[in-house]
Amino acid sequence: GFAGNVYCTFATRDLAAIMLEDSAQIQVADAAYISKKHKKKGLPPVEPLYLPEDAESAVRQFVSLGYERPIPVANGVTLTFRDAGHILGSAQVILDIDEGGTKRRLLFSGDIGRGDHAILRDPQPVEDVDVLLVESTYGNREHTAQSGLSDEVEALLAGTLNNGGKVIIPAFSVGRTQLLVYTLHQLVDAGRLPDFPIYVDSPLSVNATEVFRLHSECFNSDIYTFLREKENPFGMDNLTYIRKASESIKL
User: Fold this and answer.
1) What range(s) does the Beta-Casp domain occupy (predicted)?
2) 226: three-class secondary structure by DSSP
C-alpha cells in the first residue's frame, strides 16, 4: 500500500523493473501449480504475493538519481547516493540531517563491493559519518582477491575445451553472468581460449545484460576502455543469447 517515492540509481531502477516482473511471473506460475495440487486434496487455492501489474505499478513510483547528486527528500534531510561497488547501480545512502541547526550524517549501506572488480568501480568511501548502519553478513571474513579470475576461468575451461568437451556454468542472472561473459570475451580475444560457441540460456540473464550495456556510468576505467575499443564487452561473434523456450529446449 505504500504510495510514496522510491529513490534509487538509474541502473537499479532498470534492473528492478525486469527482476520484479520476472519474480511476479514465477509467483503466478508457482501459485497455479500449488493450487492445482490443492484442488486434488480439497484444499483452497493459494494466491501469488504480487502480480506482474503490481510490479509495473511499483516501478512507476521509482525516482532515479545519479551518484553524487544531493536531493532534499524531507524537511532538513538531504539524500546522496555514493557508489557501493557491489552490483550494477548499488549505492550507499547518505542522509545529511539538519535538526534545528544540529547537523548529523547517517550512512546506510547493504552489501559493499570488495574492490578490484572486473566491471564495476571500487566502492567509494564516505567521510564525516556520525551514524553507520551497514549489512554485515561477511563482516568477519577475509575474501580472496578478485584479480585472478581470468586465470581461474582459463584453467577450468582450457582442458575440457581442448578435448572437445562441453562446460556448463550455473550463474546468477545479475552480475555473475555478465562477469563471466566479459571474462570469456577477454580470454578468447587474447587467444588464451579457443574460439568456441558460448550460449547464455536465461531470459532474465539476457535482459539483465541489456541493462548492463545501458549503464556504462557504473563501469571502471578498464572495461570503459574495452567498451570504446571493442564496442560491446558482452557480445562477440561466438556468443548467442537465448530468450525463447523453444531455443532453450533445442540447445
Assistant:
1) 177-251
2) helix
**Does pLDDT of 237 surpass 90?**
no
Q: What is the CATH number of domain 149-250?
A: 3.40.50.10890
Residues 128 and 106: their CA atoms lie apart, in Å, by: 9
Which residue ranges make up each domain of the chain? 6-62, 66-134, 149-250
Phi, psi of 216 (to 5 degrees): -70, -10
End-to-end CA distance of the chain: 43
Is the Cα dihedral 117, 82, 211, 56 positive or negative? positive
Cell numbers at 42, concatenated: 480439497
pLDDT, tens digit, 9 for 90 and up, residues 83-118: 999 999 999 999 999 999 999 999 999 989 888 899
Q: How far is 214 from 205, CA to CA, in rounded Å?
A: 14
Asked which of 80-84, 110-114, 120-124, 180-184 is least confident by mean pLDDT, the reply is 110-114
DSSP-H helix ranges across the chain = 10-40, 52-59, 149-162, 176-189, 203-214, 221-230, 245-250
Residues 6 or more apart in contact with residue 61 via CB below 8 angstroms = 2, 3, 4, 5, 6
Instruction: Let me know: does 50 contact 24? Beta carbons within 8 Å.
Output: yes
From CA 115, how far away is CA 235, in angstroms rounded? 24
